[in-house]
Structure formats: structure tokens, C-alpha cells
Amino acid sequence: MRFLVDNNLSPKVAAGLTVAGHEATHVREYGMSAAPDEKVMAKALADRSVDPAGSPDQRAPGRADGGNHPRQPAAGAGRP
């Protein structure tokens, strides 16, 4: 799985995910430390990555239906 680790998590999270066999990049590696959530989510979408810190209510930019990031479940999804 591919991850884009946001700045609210340590770069050590990306390193740990890489050791676990995933592709993981911290936003700092892209010079996006101060980027707003919308830009981070746009980068994650462009790279087909998951933002492990993304809250379920973050919306994918540009989606007319306001849907969630395609790899993040809707809030409450999977819960009885």
C-alpha cells in the first residue's frame, strides 16, 4: 500500500511503514510541511496514496458529491 504521511505525524511513521513493506513518503520530502489539507489530499489522490492521518470527514477535492477520499471509508462505515 502507498502512504502519504501528513505533517501532524512524525517522519518516523513513514519510516516504520516503509520497514513494514509499504511505500511511504512524508510530506516534508515533497516540501509540503506547511501545505493545507486540501493540497495534501490532492497530492495523495494524484499519487493514489492514503493519508493515514486523514480524518474520515476530510473530503476529496474536486468531487462534486463531496465524497470521501476513495481509500477512506465514510464516517461510521463498517460499524453496526
Written account of the structure:
By secondary structure, this protein is α+β, with helices and mostly antiparallel strands. The chain has a domain at 2-46. Helix content is 24%, strand content 10%. The chain has two helices and two strands; from the N terminus they run βαβα. It has helices at 11-19, 37-46; strands at residues 2-5, 23-26. It has a two-stranded parallel sheet. The longest helix is centred in the middle third of the chain and has 10 residues, at 37-46. The chain is globular, with a radius of gyration of 13 Å.
Oligomer: single chain
| Computed CA radius of gyration, to the nearest angstrom | 13 Å
Indicate the mean pLDDT: 76
* Main pleated sheet: 2 strands, parallel
- SS-based structural class? alpha+beta
Q: Give the overall shape, derived from the CA principal axes.
A: globular
Distance between the termini: 27 Å
> Counting H and I runs of at least 4 residues, what is the number of helices?
2
Enumerate the spans where pLDDT stays under 50 for 5 or more consecutive residues: 55-71
Q: Looking across the biggest beta sheet, what order are the strands in?
A: 1-2
Tell me the total number of β-strands: 2
Q: List the secondary-structure elements in sequence, H or E.
A: EHEH
Strand content: 5-15%
Binned, the helix content reads 10-25%
